[in-house]
Specification:
Layout (H helix, E strand, L loop, with lengths): L7 H5 L3 H14 L6 H14 L3 E5 L2 H11 L7 E5 L5 H8 L3 E5 L10 H7 L4 E4 L11 H11 L2 E5 L7 E2 L2 E2 L6 E5 L13 E5 L2 H11 L3 E3 L2 E2 L10 H11 L2 H19 L5 E2 L7 E2 L5 E5 L9 H12 L29 H6 L3 E4 L7 H15 L2
Parallel strand pairs: 2-3, 2-4, 4-5, 5-8
Antiparallel strand pairs: 1-9, 6-7, 6-13, 8-9, 10-11, 12-14, 14-15
Helix pairs in contact: 2-9, 3-9, 4-5, 4-8, 10-13, 11-13
Length: 377
């Protein structure tokens, strides 16, 4: 039985009538960029994240860029980021003119290692960007303590982690600002690219609203150079519909994660995601680690499992196969093999298997059986 990594047709099907009504409402207003639909979504998103302000933006990547521009990060500054994450985290640092500094990660959570961050701080460091990778929050207490000690901004990259929490505190409340992505693969997704920043800081929120609209403070008055990072009205309306279902979808993902653990625990060489104490993991991805057998190349067993699952039409993917400090575009920063050993090792062991709210028990059993077949051979 084929099992997709994600099935948006199943995800969206029950909501078609609500989507049509939302689209019609935007059509009647004629306000297709920002407008009342976006304002309503922003208000409700801020409430959902437990903060005072949300700023709708054109993508999760642009959310990172807008946050850094509004905080005044630029040439001469350094920003510490994890080496093991999606490219945008570091790419946006470079786009401001600042320098990304790559820190290693923890082997169990896949998130920033505070000890590695501490070792990377210099007088030029202006911010740290913890990524709540795959849907679990980073070690924010330790990272925030470091940031306070060194007077650094903390920018949460929560692109994969809306509704995640740490000790009951939701993402968005764990740093100066959190950046969200609503790309179609995310737990709360738009019909294309969309994103947002959420913050408790009213002044920062106002600055980000200016940045998203070419730095305007009044009509054709520009106190700063911003960009065109505005959220479309239709996307705001669609996201507003879907926001009502986020809790149920999150609960389903967590139930699937529990079921996977029941089905695949105890397989030699297979490490399942570990949910840390006091963490509320939202499982944007369900990412396992496949350790090689003695004498095998580091990624051989993982790549073999990937090939086996794909031969059975089971969706799976490697997030992420090459650490950022080794990417060709960052070669000028002097990164080399061995700089971030944990991230480098995990990039050869991780594999994400199907995870979406509408998965059936039969599909999960199919995935688990295929994994067991390969790993126990």
């Amino acid at each position: 039985m084929p099992v997709p990594a994600l099935d948006l047709t199943r995800h969206h099907g029950p909501l078609f009538d609500q989507f049509r009504a939302a689209f019609d409402q935007v059509l009647r207003t004629g306000q297709f960029v920002l407008g009342p639909a976006v304002e309503r979504f922003e208000k409700r998103l801020a409430e959902r994240c437990g903060v005072g302000h949300a700023v709708g933006l054109s993508s999760g990547t642009d959310a990172l860029l807008v946050a850094m521009m509004a905080l005044g990060i630029g040439p001469g500054d350094e920003v510490i980021v994890p080496t093991f994450t999606f490219f945008a985290t570091a790419g946006c640092v470079s786009r401001t003119g600042a320098t990304p500094v790559f820190a290693d990660i923890l082997p169990d959570s896949f998130n920033l290692d505070p000890a590695s961050v501490s070792a990377k701080i210099t007088p030029c460091t202006k911010a740290v960007i913890p990524v709540h990778l795959y849907g679990q929050t980073a070690d924010m207490d330790t990272l925030n303590a470091l940031a306070k000690k060194h007077n650094l901004f903390v920018i949460e990259d929560a692109a994969q982690a809306i509704a995640a929490a740490d000790k009951g505190r939701p993402v968005g409340t764990l740093g100066h600002v959190a950046c969200l992505s609503f790309y179609p693969t995310k737990n709360l997704s738009a019909f294309g690219d969309a994103g947002a920043c959420v913050t408790a800081d009213a002044d920062l929120a106002q600055k980000m609203r200016q940045v998203r609209n070419h730095g305007q403070t009044g009509e054709y008055e520009h106190q700063m150079v911003g960009g065109n990072f505005r959220l479309d009205g239709v996307q705001g309306a669609i996201l507003d519909v879907k926001l009502d279902h986020l809790t149920a979808w999150t609960d389903a993902r967590r139930a699937h994660a529990k079921r996977y653990r029941e089905l695949m625990s105890g397989i030699d060489g297979l490490a399942l995601p570990a949910e840390g104490p006091d963490k509320f993991h939202v499982y944007n991805q369900y990412t396992v680690r496949v350790t090689p057998k003695p004498g095998q190349a580091p990624s051989a067993r993982r790549d073999g499992l990937l090939k086996h699952l794909r031969s059975k039409q089971i969706g799976c993917r490697v997030y992420y196969p090459l650490c950022l400090h080794l990417q060709p575009c960052f070669a000028g920063l002097g990164g080399k093999q061995g700089d971030c050993p944990v991230g480098e090792r995990l990039s050869q062991e991780v594999l994400s298997i199907p995870m979406f709210p509408e998965m059936t028990d039969a599909e999960q059993q199919e995935v688990a059986a295929a994994v067991r077949e390969f790993m126990l051979a």
